[in-house]
Amino acid sequence: MIFETYKLKITDNDNLSCSIKLEPNSGLALIKEKRKLYIVYHGNEILYVGEAHTSIKTRFQRGCTSFNHYIINGKARGGYKGYKWLDKIENPQRNLTVSVITFPQKYDDKENRKFIEAIEGELVYLIRNKTGNWPKFQNEIHFSNSDEAKEMAVEILTKIF
User: Fold this and answer.
1) Are 22 and 98 in contact (CB under 8 A)?
2) Beta strands in 1-153 (DSSP E)
3) Which phi and psi angles does 54 have, rounded to 5°?
4) pTM across the whole model
5) What is the rounded distance in angstroms from the CA atom of residue 140 to the CA atom of residue 127?
6) Which residues contact residue 20 at a Cβ distance below 8 angstroms, ignoring those fewer than 6 apart?
């Protein structure tokens, strides 16, 4: 697994919508069709843990587009309202950090997605154990049991903290 860290800047618009910018604009996480986990945080406060198969830039752009659609129109886009952590009232922090863990190609198939989701679930649980709280804007967690997933989640959390 490859561990990369990006700066995420949120720029607010007059109509309460926003745009995002990731820096640096190069890295393995920006390559599409690679299974990855990502952790959005500010300082020691973890805001969100997610899983993606597209490039992280595409994933964040989709979340931002859906958030903006919801803010402007008052309606979810295809049932999805985008990332809650983009809302400047709920999250006044506009300069965030994103750690992205990209996994080897063998995890890209649908069958191995459950293993990545197991790591995601273990990671969120470890955050709850360490801080006393779930990630602030976590919507859902996928659960699957795997001893190896627990070990990987501990390794990831150790790198962040």
Assistant:
1) yes
2) 2-12, 18-23, 36-42, 45-52, 95-102
3) -85, 180
4) 0.93
5) 14
6) 8, 9, 10, 11, 60, 61, 64, 86
Do 35 and 116 touch, CB atoms closer than 8 A?
yes
Tokens of 17: 């919508």
Per DSSP, 74 falls in state: S
Give the integer Cα–Cα distance in Å for 61 and 82: 10
- Judge whether 105 and 116 are in contact, CB under 8 Å: no
pLDDT tens by residue, 48-71: 999 999 999 999 999 999 999 999
Alpha-carbon span 39 to 160, nearest angstrom: 9
The CA-CA-CA angle for residues 62, 93, 58, to 5°, reads 15
Long-range Cβ pairs for the range 29-33 (8 Å, 24+) = 29/2, 29/4, 29/55, 29/56, 29/100, 29/102, 30/55, 30/56, 30/57, 31/55, 31/102, 32/58, 33/108
